[in-house]
Write a structure and sequence with these properties.
Length: 320
C-alpha cells in the first residue's frame, strides 16, 4: 500500500537474537518495507566521500546493494548538515534539496543518521518514495530514531567484536612470520585478507592495498652477494613497518615483494602513508615500485590486490 495510508506502525514483532549489524539492518529494512512501505528503504554507509548502499529493500528505483553516490549530492548530506529535516512528505522541499537527477521524481524521503557511540557518523537509514503523501512518516519519526539508535548500538558491539578478532588473528604469528624481516608471511597475509573481506562486506569501511616491489634485486645479489640482498630486503621491511599505522597489515609476499593492507583507513591517510614510504625509501637508498588500489564494493579484496599489483608493474615499466 502507498505510504500515505500508513499511520502509526505496529509494535515490533518478536525477532530472533540479532547478533550482528548485517542481520539487524536486514530486519529493520524488511520491517519498514512491510509496515511503513516506501518505494525504497535502505541502510547506507558514509565512507568520507560517498554514500554506499549496504542493505536495500526490493525497489522500483533500481537501487542495488553496493551502489555509491557522491555524498555532497545526497539528501542525506543535507540532513546531516542540518539543512533539512530528517523526514519530509513535502514534494517541493524534496525537489529543492535534490542535487541528483535520479531523485527528481521523489516526493517523500527519510534520512535518519546512524551514529557510533562517540557521535561520529556511520551512515543513514534512508527511505524514498515518488508519492508525497501525508504525515505518516513524521508521525513515526520517534520510532525511526529509535531503530537507528539500536542499529548504532549493535554496530559498535560488532566493531568491538571485529577488533578483538582482528587482534587475535594478528597474534597467530608463529607459523606466519617471515624469518628474514619479522613481517607477516604470505600465508598470514592470505588469512587476514580473507577475514577483512568479510568485515568489509559488513561495514564498507574505506581502505586500500599497497604493493611494493624492490627494484634491482637480481643485480644486488649477483654483484654484491646474497647477504647484501638480504640486508636490502630487511631495510625495506623496517621502512614499511615504521611507516604503517598500528592497524595496518604488513607482509612480505615473496622474495622482493611486500604488501600493506589498510582496513578502516581513509584515502587521505593512505596518501600520507605513500608520502612517508617514498621519502623513507629515498633517504635509505632503496629503489622500489609501488602500486595502490582502494577497497571497492565492486571488487573482492583479492581483486583489489591484483589491481594494486598491476599498478605496481605500471610504475616499474614507467622507469624504463
Amino acid at each position: 500500500m502507498p505510504h500515505s495510508q500508513a499511520r502509526t506502525i505496529p509494535m515490533l514483532p518478536l525477532l530472533p537474537p540479532l547478533t550482528n549489524f548485517d542481520d539487524a539492518s536486514r530486519s529493520v529494512v524488511s520491517y519498514l518495507d512491510e509496515y511503513l512501505p516506501l518505494a525504497l528503504w535502505s541502510i547506507t554507509r558514509f565512507d568520507g566521500s560517498n554514500q554506499i548502499f549496504l542493505t536495500v529493500s526490493p525497489n522500483p528505483l533500481h537501487i542495488e546493494v553496493g551502489e555509491t553516490r557522491a555524498w555532497p549530492n545526497t539528501m542525506c548530506s543535507e540532513v546531516v548538515l542540518g539543512n533539512a529535516p530528517p523526514v519530509s512528505s513535502n514534494r517541493a522541499l524534496v525537489r529543492a534539496l535534490s542535487r541528483d537527477g535520479r531523485w527528481e521524481g521523489i516526493g517523500a524521503y527519510v534520512s535518519i543518521p546512524i551514529l557510533h557511540n562517540d557521535g561520529s557518523l556511520f551512515g543513514t537509514l534512508c527511505g524514498a518514495d515518488p508519492s508525497a503523501g501525508d504525515s505518516a512518516l513524521e508521525d513515526n519519526l520517534a520510532l525511526l530514531n529509535l531503530l537507528c539508535r539500536l542499529l548504532g548500538t549493535i554496530l559498535d558491539v560488532d566493531y568491538q567484536r571485529a577488533q578483538s578478532v582482528r587482534l587475535a588473528e594478528t597474534a597467530q604469528l608463529d607459523a606466519e612470520t617471515d624469518p628474514l624481516t619479522g613481517l607477516l608471511n604470505r600465508r598470514g597475509w592470505n588469512r587476514i585478507l580473507e577475514a577483512e573481506q568479510t568485515r568489509y562486506r559488513q561495514f564498507a569501511d574505506p581502505g586500500a592495498i599497497i604493493i611494493v616491489d624492490l627494484d634491482g634485486m637480481k643485480t644486488i645479489n649477483d654483484e654484491l652477494g646474497h647477504a647484501a640482498g638480504d640486508e636490502y630486503v630487511q631495510r625495506a621491511g623496517k621502512i614499511l613497518a615504521a611507516c604503517a599505522h598500528p592497524g595496518a597489515v604488513v607482509s612480505r609476499l615473496g622474495g622482493d615483494e611486500f604488501g600493506i593492507a589498510l582496513p578502516d583507513t581513509q584515502p587521505r591517510a593512505v596518501d600520507y602513508l605513500l608520502e612517508c614510504l617514498e621519502k623513507a625509501f629515498r633517504n635509505a637508498d632503496v629503489c622500489c615500485s609501488i602500486g595502490r588500489a582502494d577497497f571497492s564494493m565492486t571488487q573482492s579484496l583479492s581483486e583489489t590486490w591484483d589491481t594494486a599489483d598491476a599498478e605496481m608493474y605500471r610504475h616499474k615499466r614507467s622507469k624504463h
